[in-house]
């Protein structure tokens, strides 16, 4: 019989091992954890309803299951982008690393050669690397001078900081995998193996 404490341990380990991320705001095209490694938009390749996003103080909000990760946020200024467009026409508008899980607000720098102006339709692509491979999600937007319905209160960081800082550095998702995340995942697998052995004896 599986002891309650052992069940809780196994549940926690499985959650750590399968930890991914979700694009929370603006609304993601779609979320399927098993498809997130699929370029360019985590298995959701058609344009969905567009959210109006302000040209100034724009951001995306994600929720991470990893305690340490790197990210890149790209913008693709096209009405109906193809998969190939995400390899040739995107512009990085944010990149960096975070060292805490859950909510993170990633601010966007739209002044860096994006060609975005008032009324531009675009797709925002978030590339996430928690140490176990690249993950993708997208949201479709229209950039405007004034977006009264854009919810600035959604910009929340789980570590308590009030805002995110844009980075002008090269895309971080192509860097070496995060050591902290790799240790977490490896430890999770080790605990799972030990627990399984304990159950069978």
Automatic annotation (TrEMBL):
Q: What CDD domains does the annotation carry?
A: LPMO_auxiliary-like
User: Where does the Copper acquisition factor BIM1-like domain start and stop, copy by copy?
Assistant: 18-159
The signal peptide annotation in the UniProt record is 1-19
Major location, coarse class?
membrane
| Keywords linked to the UniProt accession | Cell membrane, Glycoprotein, Lipoprotein, Membrane, Signal
Which membrane topology describes this protein? Lipid-anchor
Q: Which Pfam families match?
A: BIM1-like_dom
Q: Where are the transmembrane segments?
A: none
Compartments where found: Cell membrane; Endomembrane system
Any one annotated GO CC term: endomembrane system
Origin superkingdom: Eukaryota
Which protein is depicted? Copper acquisition factor BIM1-like domain-containing protein
Q: Which organism is it from?
A: Thamnidium elegans
């Amino acid at each position: 019989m599986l002891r309650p404490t052992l069940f809780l341990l196994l549940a926690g380990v499985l959650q750590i091992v399968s930890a991914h991320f979700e694009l929370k705001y603006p609304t993601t095209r779609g979320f399927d954890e098993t498809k997130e490694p699929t370029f360019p938009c985590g298995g959701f390749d058609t344009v969905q309803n567009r959210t109006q996003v302000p040209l100034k103080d724009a951001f995306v909000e994600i929720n991470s299951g990893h305690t340490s990760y790197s990210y890149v946020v790209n913008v693709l200024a096209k009405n109906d982008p193809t998969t190939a467009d995400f390899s040739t026409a995107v512009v990085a508008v944010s990149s960096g690393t975070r060292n805490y899980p859950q909510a993170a607000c990633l601010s966007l720098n739209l002044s860096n050669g994006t060609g975005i102006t008032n009324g531009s339709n675009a797709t925002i692509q978030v590339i996430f690397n928690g140490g176990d491979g690249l993950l993708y999600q997208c949201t479709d937007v229209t950039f405007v001078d004034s977006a009264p319905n854009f919810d600035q209160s959604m910009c929340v960081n789980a570590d308590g900081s009030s805002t995110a800082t844009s980075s002008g550095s090269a895309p971080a998702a192509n860097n070496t995998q995060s050591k902290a995340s790799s240790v977490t995942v490896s430890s999770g697998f080790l605990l799972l193996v030990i627990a399984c052995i304990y159950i069978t004896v």
